[in-house]
């Protein structure tokens, strides 16, 4: 008897204590605390892990580390250190929503940082909005961004919608053709996922106003392992320009297949992944002349110092498209908080909408909540994925001819 | 049908009544937690009613949830909400009917693989359709539904599921179903139309799963095939039902509560070791809790049946 009761009691106690552990801890109003609480839920497991841990998580940690080393942020008349609450959303929107609810209601964070990827950002945006948290998203790309920011005025995008990336490469091609560097035969392939489809659509629209000839077009499902047939088919159409609106794994696969098959178009453009350190590491000198979305100009002392700090804290190098933008967004948030001087989040959102911020990537300003200036096309030149378009942007490098695969 | 115990009716009304007013007294996080609980309670109960009694393990839960999500994405802007819910049930039912007709002769391992395969196939089909025909893989769902409203819908559905499960456990249909689970041939020889009974219950429970998908979809604001047809949901429902025990219609629910709370504690206190600890928990379930918590309670004599 005694045994039975104690075991049943154990189950009861275990259940109750689990419930208690998951429910409130006593928390104090922000003004009474010495710290500022920052929280985020991001994919540390599941399919989004690779993206989150290369572009966002290291920058979140770096920025917090930098701010705390500098003594904190000036709020309520004194410098306050940042205290971090970090959860794993397991790449599931339901988990992400709950984690944000937990951060807001249980951990009583003062600020939230966004998750990784369009789907996850969409899922948590209503919660950010309802609680009036500024949300400067580093990896939220959608055509409907202008419409979304009207709905949620607290959401800021550091990347452009897809269309500018798609049209920018077409502009680059027109320049090159005018200079007599390429003919007008274009082959396009894309991964049939949201990003790939939106980008290819933007490019197709931009091509419609030109006399480029699309001689080959094909889509392939996400997760395609063998990309040789894709490259072979493109190669058979004998194009001067090869555009792939791809994701990291297939960006690698397409490059590999093109090298193996000796497919040497004059322009070799691949999508997401071209700016990753792993891409450079894998193909080394062969990346020379390869183009893709994004890019940067790391010659400024601010970016040099950023790269050093990033390496010291996180080990590897940052990617050359999103990482520094992510960090710049955090700097803007920090400056907006200090400008307001309190945790008045609606006021901070107003400041973010109106002011210009000094960041590692230069002055950052949001226009209709979307970061104004951005690199749209990058090209590997040596160790760097240089920004080449828009070409009138300060620091833009001229485009080089792509050598044959080495 | 046996007589209803008045005490259980009172208990039912009190519990659901209390649950209904919870959002008034708590914050968004507690409501969020309860939404997770109710979502899986609905799914696991519906799963258990068919799979528990017929001993056929289905991994198609995610397919039905996904159908519900996509019904919302397609029709929520043009049709009134109750109609969207009905439609999602209808679509889920049609899909279940097709799966049911295809799997009449399958059982055991073959049924498991088939249902898993079907769920994956539907995900790929939707993906193909969206990318090639609609020209966009993601769909936006802009409905101004509060968390509390989602919670209440799930709660009402759960009450219905509970009543249905209770009725089934005492009805001729439920008896026939249990008999099929024990020995299909013998059940057939007793004059039970085994095909009809199985189809009926599979379709019914699948409709519930689709409605769960429909209710929860506005919470995510954006869906794409990988979100709507998340295979993990199928596995989690299965594990919850195993933990709870599938011998009685309410068995799976017993597994939902501790697991959701365990997930919560793990995410909060061990965010970096979640998967590892979870794996250990699953091992414990398999090694030490055959028959689930229900089986344990039975062995201790806490419940009969």
Instruction: Tell me the distance between the termini of chain B.
Output: 16 Å
Percentage of β-strand residues of chain A: 15-25%
What's the helix count of chain A?
13
Gyration radius of chain B, to the nearest Å?
19 Å
Description:
The complex is a heterodimer of chains A (406) and B (305). With 406 residues, chain A is α/β, with parallel strands linked by helices. Helices cover 44% and strands 20% of the residues of chain A. Chain A contains 13 helices and 16 strands. Chain B has helices at residues 6-25, 28-54, 61-75, 81-102, 108-134, 147-170, 172-182, 184-189, 194-216, 225-228, 231-244, 251-269, 274-288, 292-299; strands spanning 139-140, 222-223. The model of chain B has no long low-confidence stretch (mean pLDDT 89). Chain B starts with 5 loop residues before the first helix and ends in a 6-residue tail after the last helix. By secondary structure, chain B is mostly helical. The longest helix of chain B is centred in the first third of the chain and has 27 residues, at 28-54. At the A-B interface, helix 1, strand 3, helix 3, helix 4 and helix 7 of A face helix 2, helix 5, strand 2 and helix 12 of B.
Question: Keywords for this structure?
Answer:
heterodimer; A: 406 residues; alpha/beta; four-stranded mixed β-sheet; four-stranded parallel β-sheet; 44% helix; elongated; disordered N terminus; B: 305 residues; mainly alpha; 14 helices
């Amino acid at each position: 008897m005694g045994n039975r009761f104690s075991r049943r009691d154990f189950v009861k106690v275990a259940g109750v204590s689990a419930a208690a552990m998951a429910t409130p801890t006593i928390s104090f109003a922000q003004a009474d605390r010495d710290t500022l609480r920052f929280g985020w839920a991001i994919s540390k497991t599941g399919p989004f892990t690779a993206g989150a841990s290369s572009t966002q998580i290291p920058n979140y940690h770096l920025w917090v580390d930098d701010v705390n080393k500098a003594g904190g942020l000036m709020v309520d008349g004194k410098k306050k250190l940042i205290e971090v609450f970090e959860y794993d959303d397991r790449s599931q929107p339901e988990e992400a929503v709950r984690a944000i609810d937990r951060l807001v209601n249980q951990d009583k964070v003062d600020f939230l940082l966004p998750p990784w990827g369009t789907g996850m950002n969409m899922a948590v945006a209503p919660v950010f909005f309802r609680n009036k948290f500024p949300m400067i998203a580093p990896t939220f790309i959608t055509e409907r961004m202008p419409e979304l920011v009207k709905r949620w005025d607290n959401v800021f995008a550091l990347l452009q919608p897809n269309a500018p990336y798609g049209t920018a490469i077409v502009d680059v091609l027109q320049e090159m053709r005018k200079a007599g560097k390429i003919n007008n035969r274009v082959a396009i392939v894309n991964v049939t996922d949201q990003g790939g489809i939106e980008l290819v659509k933007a490019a197709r629209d931009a091509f419609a106003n030109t006399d480029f000839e699309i001689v080959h077009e094909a889509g392939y499902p996400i997760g395609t392992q063998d990309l040789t047939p894709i490259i072979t088919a493109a190669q058979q159409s004998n194009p001067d320009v090869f555009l792939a609106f791809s994701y990291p794994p297939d960006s690698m696969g397409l490059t590999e297949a093109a090298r193996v098959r000796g497919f040497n178009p004059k322009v070799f453009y691949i999508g997401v992944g071209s700016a990753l350190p792993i891409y450079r590491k894998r193909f080394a000198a062969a990346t020379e002349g390869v183009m893709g979305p994004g890019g940067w100009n790391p010659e400024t002392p601010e970016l040099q110092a950023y790269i050093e700090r990033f390496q010291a804290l996180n080990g590897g190098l940052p990617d050359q498209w999103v990482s520094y933008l992510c960090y710049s967004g955090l700097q803007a948030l920090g400056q907006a908080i200090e400008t307001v001087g309190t945790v008045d989040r609606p006021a901070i959102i107003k400041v973010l909408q109106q002011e210009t911020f000094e960041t590692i990537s230069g002055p950052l300003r949001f226009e209709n909540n979307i970061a104004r200036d951005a690199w749209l096309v990058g090209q590997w030149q040596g160790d760097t994925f240089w920004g080449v378009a828009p070409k009138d942007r300060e620091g833009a490098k001229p485009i080089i001819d792509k050598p044959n695969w080495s | 049908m046996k007589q209803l115990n008045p005490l259980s009716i009172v208990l039912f009304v009190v519990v659901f009544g209390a649950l209904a007013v919870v959002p008034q007294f708590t914050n968004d996080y507690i409501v969020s937690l309860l939404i997770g609980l109710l979502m899986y309670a609905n799914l696991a109960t519906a799963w258990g009613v068919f799979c528990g009694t017929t001993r056929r393990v289905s991994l198609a839960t995610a397919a039905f949830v996904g159908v519900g999500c996509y019904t919302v994405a397609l029709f929520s802007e043009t049709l009134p909400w109750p109609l969207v819910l009905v439609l999602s049930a209808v679509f889920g039912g049609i899909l279940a009917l097709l799966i049911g007709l295809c799997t009449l002769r399958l059982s055991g391992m073959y049924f498991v693989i088939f249902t898993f395969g079907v769920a994956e196939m539907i995900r790929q089909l939707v993906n193909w359709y969206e990318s090639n025909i609609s020209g966009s893989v993601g769909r936006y769902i802009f409905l101004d539904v509060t968390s509390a409203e989602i919670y209440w819908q799930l709660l009402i559905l759960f009450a219905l599921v509970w009543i249905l499960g209770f009725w089934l456990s005492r009805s001729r249909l439920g008896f026939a179903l249990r008999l099929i689970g024990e020995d299909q041939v013998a059940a057939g020889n007793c004059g039970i139309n085994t095909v009809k009974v199985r189809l009926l219950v599979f379709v019914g429970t699948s409709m519930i799963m689709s409605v769960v998908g429909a209710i929860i979809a506005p919470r995510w604001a954006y869906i794409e095939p990988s979100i709507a047809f998340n295979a993990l949901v199928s596995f989690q429902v299965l594990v919850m039902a195993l933990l709870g025990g599938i011998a009685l219609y309410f068995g799976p629910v017993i597994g939902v509560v501790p697991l959701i709370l365990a997930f919560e504690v793990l995410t909060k206190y061990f965010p970096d070791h979640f998967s590892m600890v979870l794996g250990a928990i699953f091992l414990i379930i398999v090694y030490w809790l055959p028959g689930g918590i229900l089986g344990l309670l039975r062995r201790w004599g806490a419940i009969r049946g």
